[in-house]
Design brief:
single chain; alpha/beta; Purple Acid Phosphatase, chain A, domain 2; nine-stranded mixed β-sheet; seven-stranded mixed β-sheet; 10 helices; 18 strands; disordered N terminus
Length: 414
């Protein structure tokens, strides 16, 4: 909301200053950088034409409150996961487990189900398109069967899907339309964002009201693996170098909602350290109104932290949660995390409090020849399992070294 103030119960750590030059991403998109001091002093709001943003008063707003007559709790359990990257090993094994009758993905995810059981909002970056209009395919052009989406929604409980990633055009614009059709027809109850049918759909900011708190969801990708988005079918994507559009959207979302969630697909693949684009975009997004940032793309776990906004309030940033699950062969990509936090609101002042943010580490584990791909929580992982990892042996010491990128206060072994 316009006059909201985000307060935090835990001490903040200010992210280091951002350099003032441009970094080119892998497909040639560039982000024009200002210095951090320029960002913090720039409080102007760009003018904009009237648009069709979804407002909290519109009938299509998703309201998850179970009893319209009951007083809302003004408390939300918010859980988020990284890249659901479905290689052929994963869907082929699921097909075999189903005995020729569809797909059975339960083995892949069953050990992670408990972390989503009491979530009010569960956000997933679906790294591949999901559709039954194309044959399943794997790297470098991913396409996953509809049964994947059915499982993550119906069995795990994800109710918000980010489509802002570099694989959204793997089957061309036709594939993009096909996956939009899948989500809109098979799971219309799910909020999907980050890829859109047209400009009106893109401007229609997704708002979900849960327990009396309004959340807005926005997603942007750095690139689409060099595949040009022609828009011949009318679809719309927003790349991270479209900063004017992004500013307009985040500021508008801040007016419509109590909590603004931004999902940027940014950073260097299979690298634990942050790059300047990640830090620069975080500075911009939080200045414009973002409260929670859920980063993806590097395919491995990275830092998370409070981020101090120019007005003195705080946002929380997951720079990268890594993979939720994948069949990647780089051992850094086997180490990911589930983000977990609580949000409370004072109904009189609409003051927001973020509580107890954490990362629960998980491992994408498989045996020889990429067999039995599944998610195993770090709390259940052992040296024996690590040494038996199919592509090359892992060790608990190696995993612990990677997890040092997460500040100890946010690392939750449970």
């Amino acid at each position: 909301m316009k006059n909201k103030k985000l307060k935090i119960l835990r001490s903040a750590v200010l992210i280091c200053a951002v350099m003032s030059f441009s970094i080119m991403c892998s497909c040639g998109n560039s982000i024009e950088h200002k210095t951090l001091s320029e960002l913090q002093s720039d409080t102007s709001v760009q003018s904009q034409e009237e648009n069709t943003y979804l407002s909290a008063a519109d009938p299509d707003v998703s309201d998850q409150s179970s009893d319209e007559n009951a007083e809302p709790s003004y408390s939300v359990h918010f859980v988020c996961a990284g890249d659901n990257l479905i290689h052929n090993y994963i869907y082929d094994q699921a097909r075999e487990r189903a005995g020729g009758n569809g797909y059975d993905f339960s083995f892949v995810y069953e050990k992670a189900l408990k972390y989503f059981e009491d979530a009010d909002i569960a956000v997933l970056n679906q790294e591949t398109i999901v559709t039954d209009e194309f044959e399943p395919s794997s790297y470098p052009g991913f396409c996953s069967p509809g049964a994947v989406g059915d499982y993550v929604v119906d069995e795990i409980g994800f109710n918000v899907i980010s489509m802002a990633n570099n694989h959204i055009l793997d089957m061309g614009e036709e594939g993009l339309v096909s996956t939009l059709n899948y989500w809109d027809t098979r799971h219309p109850e799910v909020i999907r964002y980050g890829a859109y049918r047209d400009t009106a759909d893109m401007e229609n900011i997704r708002i979900m009201e849960v327990n009396g708190i309004k959340f807005a969801f926005l997603g942007y990708m750095q690139h689409t693996n060099g595949i040009e988005h022609t828009g011949e079918l009318g679809t719309r994507l927003v790349y991270l170098n479209e900063l004017d559009t992004i500013e307009q959207q985040i500021r508008k979302a801040d007016e419509l909602a109590d909590v603004v969630v931004v999902s940027p697909h940014f950073g260097v693949e299979v690298q634990s350290e942050l790059n300047e684009d990640q830090q620069y975009c975080t500075a911009l997004f939080t200045q414009w109104g973002a409260d929670i940032i859920i980063g993806t793309q590097p395919h491995t776990i990275q830092e998370c932290n409070w981020y101090e906004k120019p007005d003195g309030s705080k946002a929380f940033v997951y720079y990268c949660l890594g993979n939720f699950v994948s069949g990647m062969s780089n051992k850094l990509a086997w180490i990911g995390g589930i983000g977990d936090l609580y949000i409370e609101m004072d109904p009189e002042t609409r003051e927001i409090t973020i509580k107890d943010p954490k990362i629960i580490p998980i491992i994408s584990h498989y045996g020889e020849n990429y067999s039995n791909v599944q998610i195993i929580p770090y709390a259940e992982y052992t040296e024996e399992l690590a040494q038996s990892h199919g592509y090359e042996p892992l060790s608990m010491e190696y995993i612990d070294d990677v997890l040092k990128h997460v500040p100890e206060e946010f690392l939750s072994i449970e």
